[in-house]
Amino acid sequence: MTRKSKSSGETVRLPDIGLAAILANVRKKEYGIVADWIEDHLRNYELAEFLRAGGDDPRTPAQRDQTVFSEFRYRLLDGYVLLFAAHFKVCQWTRNGEEKDAPQGHVIGLCLSANAPNGPTRLVRWLLKDVPCPGLDRLWQELSKEPAPSALEVSK
User: Which residue from 37, 75, 113, 141 could staple onto 80, CB 3.0 to 4.6 Å apart?
Assistant: First the structure.
């Protein structure tokens, strides 16, 4: 998978570092395995922390149509895996026009490309606003930056 570097304008090719194989073979509820791998190989402790602290989708089926997503961010982690993050808020009101207490927080996902062996697939974790996750702010700020050049292979 390639992308244009913001700083140089050159085409950047991300290497396949093995995350795709882990993601392709993980079963539902095995988030800890992915978190451990991310800590050990990517040294991304904040993402691993979020994967452990997060949970399944907290919304009811009716709330899915009432959800607003904002501040979408993403980063390619390797040649086949995209990390995405967004704020989410379920918007519900009473008949009096007062906002109901409804789920809100952050959602993070790892998406395996359809071009990857055993793809496409995804792993998505939801973190409600009142669940502690100290590394969330650091992770959120990191996702607004371009990936470090040392993690990329520049092709000309």
Answer: 113
Handedness of CA 151, 37, 50, 116 (dihedral sign): positive
Write down the H helix ranges in the chain.
19-25, 31-37, 45-53, 61-64, 136-142
DSSP character for 155?
-
- pTM, 2 dp: 0.78
Tokens of 69: 């997503």
Picking from 146, 139, 150, the residue whose alpha carbon sits closest to that of residue 3 is: 146
pLDDT tens for each residue of the chain, 156 residues long: 444 545 566 655 566 678 888 888 887 778 899 999 999 999 999 999 999 999 999 999 999 999 999 999 999 888 899 999 999 999 988 888 888 889 999 999 999 999 888 889 999 999 999 998 988 888 888 887 654 333 333 333
